[in-house]
Amino acid sequence: MDYRTWEAGAIKIEVDYDACNGNGTCVEVCPAEVYVLQYDKTVPVNIEECIECCACVENCPQQAIRHSSC
Questions:
Q1: How far apart (Å, rounded) are the C-alpha atoms in residues 40 and 48?
Q2: CATH number of 17's domain
Q3: Is residue 69 pLDDT above 90, yes or no?
């Protein structure tokens, strides 16, 4: 599996790039605008803005996101 990891402080987000299909659900549901799509994959470019609500994990249809708070 191709897991990519981003960290900021105590927050750690992992995205399974094999599972991510770039449908953008995480971008749409994140109230803090943490995610963007780059080359049809999600990237948490604003991880320091994360409010740890877990909407990304709960709404990803591919279950491609792991979050240290969820």
A1: 22
A2: 3.30.70.20
A3: yes
The reported pTM is: 0.92
Tell me how many domains the chain contains.
Answer: 1
Integer Cα distance of 28 and 13 in angstroms: 17
E strand residue ranges, the chain: 3-8, 11-16, 35-38, 41-44, 65-67
At 68 the three-state DSSP class reads coil
Structure tokens, 14: 């992992």
DSSP count for the chain of H helices, then E strands:
2, 5
50: domain range?
Answer: 3-67
Q: What is the CB neighbour count within 10 angstroms for residue 49?
A: 14
